[in-house]
Amino acid sequence: MDRTLPQPTPETQHFWDGCAAGELRLQRCVDCREAYFPPRPLCPKCGSRAVEVFPASGKASLYSYVINHRPRPDMGTAPHSIAVVALEEGPRMMTNIVDCPQTPEALQLDMPLKVTFQNFGAITLPFFKPAEA
Amino acid sequence: MKPGSIAVVGAAETTKLGKIPDMSVIGLHADAALNAMADAGLKPSDIDGVATAGASPVETAHYLGITPTWVDGTSVGGCSFMLHVRHAAAAINEGLCKTVLITHGESGRSRVGAGGFGRSPSSLMGQFEMPYGVTSPPTMFTVPVLRYLKARGYTEEDLAMVSVIQREWAAKNPRASFKDPITVDDVLNSPMIAWPFRMLMCCLVTDGGGALILTSRERAKDFPKKPVYIIGTGESVETPMVSQMVDFTTSKAFRVSGKKAFDEAGITPKDVDHLMIYDAFAHLPLYGLEDLGFCAPGEAGAFIRERNTAPGGKLPLNTNGGGLSYMHSGMYGMYALQESVRQMRGIAPAQAQGAKIAVSHGVGGMFAASGTIIFTNQD
Ligand SMILES: [Zn+2]
Asked: Do B127 and A8 touch (CB under 8 A)?
């Protein structure tokens, strides 16, 4: 079964273009310097329209997660993580932790992670893996 | 609102709860509405305000033959009915209508005439959460919990204890879906759904409905049942994406909604005799006890473990058995409100003796929204 994929909108296209180019792109406010996610053409802290896109470091830490034991059909049959990571720049995002066992022992809160990308045709999704992997 | 200016004069659930394959969603709305009207001694032509979630208020008004002068279709998930109560109170006080019917019906289990649960792949959730395998509430509502447990020092056993004690309440309720006693070990040995959540930490999926009828304090005295007055109301929303909650250890919507309601009522948690906290999953009563101010952060686990919320405890909580053991059609907030009203009327299966103030606190979506209603049976 084909992976469930996002359908970009004009306000998010830069993010998905970045993933295709191997770059995790965030936005920040020119006026108050707040970095934020998910993408939108205004600053969620001060409402300014003066915002810019910038490449994130790709470094993150594991903020919280579950291990889904009843995967959606497009996710395969093995239990897998559904995680939220804290990016070095501040914002958090949902992802899967990959390239490591999908167990509570291997997935320790606050462990350092780094971004990795996987192409699914029209869309490239960002995932995170242990920083030392 | 002015505390006590509005009263519940009709309240009922659907005739059956649980598995109702012979009724569609709109049929469940109508069954609950007719039961509530019978409770209040009213006919559809007596109703001039309609509010509902899930279904459209246009659909329910037309189906029941009501010509309203006020409607509310606020649909922010399972707490929508708390928001309807709040909005209806304001509308009645403003003179927009006199007698409001709030309905809920959901064919959560049988899916008769029920819509889908899909999200557009171009929505923010569709773009930034759905690709990672989230399916339904068990893989979304649960995502903040490992962070919460670590921050508070709570354990899986603390989650399990919520389910165990709510089952004790359910055992007293003939209409509860699950009544057999369970232990912490039973919960921790039930099938894994999404680590750290086991099946017995997750709500039921059932069919059912409920309805409420509200009017002004002045008119309430003319109804057959003793009025239950509304003295405090609150609502708020935070985010449609659980991953974007500002803090995984506390719900901003819970705090804002709860504070509004308590301030309006002029009470503190110490004044509360009976409490409902929408429990789609076992962690919600822990968050609710902290965010409403009943427990300091980190103390809710012990508060439950030490049986303060259990039968015989000082703060009866989720006395119908809750979404974990009583019923959960999808938007459970209506059933929390129904139990609060029963407790204030003195007719609950597990009645909190002498209770004068009851709080009903709801959640919508995955910590997306919240509504809080405070009731009293005192004039
Ligand atoms: Zn700004």
From this structure: yes
User: Which residue's entry shows tokens 């405070």?
Assistant: B374
What is the distance in A from the centroid of ligand 1 to the CA of A58? 22
The verdict on a CB contact (< 8 Å) between A67 and B194 is: yes
Residue A72 DSSP symbol:
-
The model's pLDDT over B221-277, given as tens digits with 9 standing for 90+, comes to 999 999 999 999 999 999 999 999 999 999 999 999 999 999 999 999 999 999 999
CA neighbor of B276 nearest in space, from B318, B232, B305: B318
- Calculate ∠ Cα B181-B177-B55, nearest 5°: 145
Domains annotated for chain B, with CATH where assigned, are: 6-113+204-376 (3.40.47.10)
Torsion, Cα B89 B95 B100 B106, to 10 degrees, reads -70
Residue of A72, A82, A123 lying closest to B143 (CB–CB): A82
| Interchain proximity A79–B195, CB inside 8 Å | yes
Q: Are A94 and B146 inside 8 Å of each other by CB?
A: no
| pLDDT digits 0-9 by tens, B17-37 | 999 999 999 999 999 999 999
The catalytic site residues of B sit at 278, 326
The token pair that represents B31 in the structure block? 């069954």
Q: What is the pTM of this model?
A: 0.95
Strand partners, A92: A86
Q: What is the ipTM of this complex?
A: 0.94
Reduce the secondary structure of B198-243 to three states and give it as a string.
EHHHECCCCEEEEEEEEEEHHHHCCCCCCCEEEEEEEEEECCCCHH
Q: Which residue of A has its CA nearest to B139?
A: A68
Residues 95-124 of A with CB under 8 A from B: 95-96, 104, 109, 123
